[in-house]
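Input sequence (102 aa), recorded before submission:
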Amino acid sequence: MTKKNNEEQTKEKTAQEEEVISIPLDNIEDDTSALAQRKADEYKDHLQRLQAEFDNYRKRTAENSRQSRSDGICDVIAELLPAIDNLERGIGAVADTSAKSG
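Predicted structure, token format:
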């Protein structure tokens, strides 16, 4: 009996395996097409996000560059103003002395 039960179980397993394997090909093609479309949409979304991220990076970098240049110009002007003021006072002092002596 045991041998008979084993043979019956083997036949049942084989029948179950055949049922699992017998999937209609139309469904597979539809599933593959849907999966491919979903993957394509994911890649497109990822690409669009990367492009937007790079565009934001480029704009942010350009703005930082402009701001750094502006800060540098302001620093140079702040350093030059006292020297220019002293030069103007010196020119004014020389002009006053020559007018009084003449």
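Checked by second reader. Residues 51 and 57 are 10 Å apart (CA to CA).
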